[in-house]
Design a protein that fits this description.
Length: 353
C-alpha cells in the first residue's frame, strides 16, 4: 500500500505548516492533530514528536503524528496521541491509514519502544445496539446561528438553560491569566473529587499559548465565583472540548447546562459546524448528558501494538485500572488540594489518557 509513495518522518519545524493545512482540510482532522498539540506536549512534558508523512510527488496523502512518551519504569512508548481521545492516522483512504499505523508500530519496535498506540475513531455514527460497554466520542452538527441552535433543542433542554440563568449564574467566553486561573481552580477541585491526578496549570497555559486564536475558555460564575469552566480547541470548522468541569456543590443550579449552551452558541458565531463533546462510555451519565444536546455516538477505535510490533486486541475503552483503582481514588480524594495539585502533575505526565 505504501509502494510508490515518498514516506518519511518529519518534524513540525520543517513541515508543520503543510501538515496543519492537511489536517484542516481532512474530513477526520481534529484539533489534536494540529502541530499545536505536539508543541504543548513538548513545552509541558518535554516529550519529543515525529510525524510519518506520505507524499505522492508534492501531494501530501497521509500523516500520522506520534509523541514519544516516557514511563517511570521501562522503555518509552509511542503514542498517537497522548492526553486526548483521537489522534490516529489521517489518510486519503482507510487502507493507507492502516498501512501507516503498521509502519509506525514496526518502527517503534525497531527503536526499542515498549509499544505503540493509535487512537482512531470510526467516521460514521455508530448503531447503538452495537455499543454496549464501548467508549464513544459524541459529535454534534451545529446550525448556522445560535438562534437556530436554541430552537432546535427540545423544550426541556431550553428550560434547563433558563433555569441556570434564573439561578443567578452567568457565563462568558474569556481569555487571559485570570480566566485560566478560574478554569484551573474548578478543574483541579473536580479532579480531586473524582480521585484522579490533574494536569498542571502550566500544561493548560502551554495549550492556550500554542493554539492562540484557536482556543478559548468558557467560565460560569455565581456572584463572581467560578463554578464551572471549559477549554475548547478549534480546527477549521470543527471544535472539541477536552476539559470541562463544574463544582459539585453548585450542580443543583445547572451550571453545566449554561456552560455548554454558551460554548455551542459561541461556536455557531465562529462558523464551526461540528462540535466534539469528547469521550464517554455508552449508556452512562456523561453519555446521556451529551446525547440530550443532539450529539451522536461515534465508536472509538483505539489500537495497540506491543514492543515486537505485533497488534494487541482492539482497545475500545480505557483500561479499567484493576481492583486497586477504587482504593487509589478514595485516597486521592482525601488529599489536601494543594498536595493533589503538586503531586498530581508529576504522575499525570505518565498517564496518557
Amino acid at each position: 500500500m505504501l509502494d510508490g509513495l515518498n514516506l518519511f518522518y518529519t518534524d513540525d519545524k520543517e513541515h508543520g505548516a503543510a501538515l496543519d493545512r492537511f489536517v484542516r482540510q481532512h474530513p477526520e482532522g481534529t484539533p489534536y492533530h494540529l502541530s499545536a498539540w505536539r508543541a504543548a506536549v513538548a513545552d509541558a512534558y518535554g516529550y519529543s514528536a515525529r510525524t510519518l508523512a506520505a507524499f505522492d510527488g508534492a501531494a501530501l496523502l497521509a500523516c500520522l503524528p506520534v509523541c514519544i512518551v516516557a514511563r517511570p519504569f521501562g522503555k518509552p512508548r509511542w503514542s498517537a496521541l497522548p492526553f486526548c481521545d483521537v489522534g490516529g492516522p489521517l489518510a486519503s483512504t482507510p487502507a493507507l491509514a492502516a498501512a501507516l499505523s503498521r509502519r509506525v508500530a514496526s518502527d517503534a519496535a525497531e527503536a526499542g519502544a515498549a509499544g505503540f498506540e493509535a487512537r482512531g475513531s470510526v467516521s460514521m455514527p455508530s448503531a447503538e445496539d452495537a455499543l454496549e460497554g464501548r467508549k464513544v466520542r459524541m459529535l454534534l452538527e451545529l446550525p448556522a446561528s445560535a438562534e437556530a441552535l436554541m430552537q432546535g433543542y427540545p423544550p426541556k433542554l431550553r428550560s434547563q438553560i433558563r433555569k441556570a440563568e434564573k439561578n443567578g449564574l452567568n457565563a462568558a467566553i474569556e481569555t487571559g491569566p485570570a480566566a485560566l486561573a478560574a478554569f484551573y481552580e474548578v478543574y483541579s477541585k473536580n479532579m480531586r473529587r473524582l480521585g484522579s491526578p490533574p494536569h498542571s496549570q502550566a500544561w493548560f497555559a502551554a495549550v492556550l499559548r500554542r493554539y492562540g486564536d484557536e482556543a478559548f475558555l468558557a467560565v460560569v460564575r455565581r456572584e463572581g465565583k467560578a463554578v464551572g469552566a471549559g477549554l475548547v480547541l478549534l480546527c477549521g470548522g470543527r471544535a472539541a472540548i477536552p476539559w470541562a468541569s463544574t463544582l459539585s456543590e453548585y450542580n443543583a443550579l445547572a451550571p453545566n447546562m449554561l456552560l455548554y449552551w454558551t460554548i455551542q452558541a459561541h461556536l455557531c458565531g465562529l462558523g464551526v459546524r461540528r462540535f466534539d463533546f469528547g469521550r464517554s462510555t455508552y449508556g452512562e451519565g456523561t453519555y446521556k448528558f451529551k446525547k440530550q444536546w443532539g450529539a451522536l455516538p461515534y465508536a472509538l477505535d483505539w489500537q495497540e501494538w506491543d514492543g515486537a510490533g505485533q497488534p494487541r486486541a482492539e482497545q475500545a475503552s480505557a483500561p479499567a485500572g484493576g481492583s486497586l483503582r477504587p482504593l487509589v481514588e478514595q485516597l486521592w480524594q482525601r488529599l489536601p488540594l494543594s498536595v493533589a495539585n503538586t503531586v498530581g502533575p508529576r504522575l499525570r505526565r505518565y498517564i496518557t489518557l
